[in-house]
Design goal:
Largest sheet: 15 strands, mixed
Radius of gyration: 17 Å
Helix content: under 10%
Number of strands: 19
């Protein structure tokens, strides 16, 4: 399905609405959840692609338990409890004006095809705190092979708790790998380093 303009869930005062995506695809320029009424978006499968996802408190709720989320801008807090967030459009940036939590069954996909952030490699930028767990998958595109010392700041935030419990795709060669580095406040990045 494709929505040319806005998909608004809970548009009118006193109304209640819900949208459930469990398979297939939904593409919308903008999604507003809980405008004047109460709205819920349940992403449990399939693929959701949008330029703008606006979760309006206290009436809006976004349940992310499966599927894939491609979003350029998100307003509100996101809890990834079993889905995959894949920033931008191969590669690109997802900007979260709020906080991001990833549970033990959540997943983040980062694609790297060069050294220009948000253009050649994915970035997830979060204005508030992040709480990390679950899986981070790294995918190199177009035959790109990072050289020693190259850094890729893939996640930025105001503060952080936790780390990804599993990181896949960091092996480059028998002597070189992408090493994750976590800052408490600022960013998490990969540095191409000798393979230990």
């Amino acid at each position: 399905h494709s929505v040319t303009n806005q998909l608004i869930i809970g548009k009118e005062s006193g109304s209640t609405g819900a949208y459930n995506l469990s398979n297939g695809t939904l593409s919308a320029n903008a999604i507003v959840i809980g405008s004047l009424g109460t709205g819920t978006f349940n992403l449990s499968g399939g693929t959701l692609t949008t330029d703008s996802l606006n979760i309006i408190n206290p009436n809006g709720a976004f349940s992310f338990t499966g599927g894939v989320l491609h979003a350029t801008n998100i307003i509100g807090n996101i809890v990834n409890n079993g889905g995959m967030i894949a920033p931008g459009q191969s590669p690109g940036t997802t900007h979260v004006d709020g906080g991001y939590t990833q549970t033990a069954i959540g997943e983040t996909l980062i694609e790297i095809a060069g050294t220009n952030p948000g253009v050649d490699f994915d970035q997830l930028t979060v204005t508030q705190s992040v709480s990390l767990d679950g899986t981070l998958d790294v995918s190199l595109l177009g035959g790109f092979a990072p050289t020693y010392g190259q850094q890729f700041s893939v996640l930025t935030y105001a503060s952080r708790t936790g780390t990804f419990s599993q990181v896949n795709g960091t092996f480059l060669t028998s002597t070189r790998a992408l090493a994750p580095v976590y800052d408490f406040a600022g960013s998490s990045q990969f540095t191409a380093a000798p393979n230990s």
